[in-house]
Amino acid sequence: MESNKNLVRAYFVAFRDRDAVWWERFIAPDFVRHDPGLDFEVRGPAGVARLGEVLHGGFSDIEMHVAEVIAEGDRVLARLRFTGRHTGTFQGTPATGNAVDIAVMDFFRVVDGRLTEHWALMDNLSLLKQVGAIDA
After folding, report:
1. Does residue 135 belong to any structural domain of this protein?
2. Cα 21 from Cα 45, distance rounded (Å)
3. What is the pTM of this model?
4. What percent of the chain clears pLDDT 70, i.e. is strictly above it?
């Protein structure tokens, strides 16, 4: 289980750094991210790359501050904070330069040393308030 926890921690570093080589090695080809906040599918390494383009296109100085990682069997839960600066268009909202800081819970399934599923739960309401898309 410790190796699964380390894999999930490494995912956040690879995502921040847009490490396509890591994605190809550790994201299963049939990987799927279940995320009701997205208007597109995230499947396989290419889907993770697309998600990276969207988030890095809307935010700079992205960091994922992992506070806790819990594993049981093939499942890993990570509690973290996503921070960055809104420097590009995100979900139709032009850049504001505002800092963002939101809570995130990510739940992964690991099979044979690769991430195969990801359930994402982000504080999208706070994010939309912080980028000025809706009134605070």
Report:
1. no
2. 9
3. 0.93
4. 100
Please report the pLDDT score of residue 88 as a whole number. 97
Name residue 56's amino acid. H
| Torsion sign across C-alpha atoms 57, 50, 132, 79 | negative
pLDDT at 83: 98
pLDDT tens, residue by residue, 66-90: 999 999 999 999 999 999 999 999 9
DSSP 3-state assignment of 13? helix
Our count of domains for the chain comes to: 1
Question: 73: domain CATH number?
Answer: 3.10.450.50
Q: Considering the domain boundaries, does residue 126 fall inside one?
A: yes
What DSSP string describes 18-83? Answer: T-HHHHHHHEEEEEEEE-TT-SS-EEHHHHHHHHHHHHHHHEEEEEEEEEEEEEETTEEEEEEEEE
Task: Provide the domain limits for residue 21.
Answer: 2-130
